[in-house]
Amino acid sequence: MFDFVEIGELSVFILLGLASTLAIAVGIERWFVFSKREGKDPDSSFWGISEGLESGDTESVQRYAIESESNAYNGFGSYALKVFSSGTSSKKELLQSKIAEEKGLLERRLSILSTLGNNAPFLGLLGTVLGVIKAFHGLGTLGSSGAEVVMRSISTALLATAGGLALAIPVVILNNYFQRKKITILGNLEILSLKALGGFSNPNSNHHRSGSQTGSAVL
């Protein structure tokens, strides 16, 4: 039984190390994804696309969309142009599907950070409990002469709790940061969707004027 306790205590430290590595890898990967989806100047992209969609100005939307479709707002503007040029009656549904697609992309692997942040303290606590069991076993075996060994065991056991908390705190902060970014991006896309539906439904929009003049409007 005591051998299993020692193995369990060692396994906890190994798992904490692996969890830390995983958290760092996911954090870096998500950082690049969110940076790419926001672009270098997210405010400029959002307001540029927003004004173009609201007024039904296809040229304005195209100017921003052509810069970089990896930017969530530019990509959404480009997709909106395709939706309205298709003549489909399901414009609202298609725009919402694009937002849902973006949500899936942004939420990918965030559950890993959430799981690690919620469970790392418990994993550390398990290591502490196993370490305390080991310490008391040593105290019962060695008696008062083994006090030094027992204190070292307890000290090591408490390191597991400290390690769990040291992992959980930054992971929770990082997860909350990405969640806030996700909510901001999706909220802005909802705004762009509403402005597109309103702007291109306006008979006085640039979209309709250019279509009547040239007969070959983009939309």
From TrEMBL:
Keywords: Cell membrane, Membrane, Protein transport, Transmembrane, Transmembrane helix, Transport. The keyword Plastid does not apply. GO terms for cellular component: plasma membrane. The chain crosses the membrane at residues 12-33, 116-137, 157-178. It is a multi-pass membrane protein. One of its GO terms (biological process) is protein import. Belongs to the exbB/tolQ family. This is MotA/TolQ/ExbB proton channel family protein. It comes from Leptospira sarikeiensis. The lineage of its organism: Bacteria, Pseudomonadati, Spirochaetota, Spirochaetia, Leptospirales.
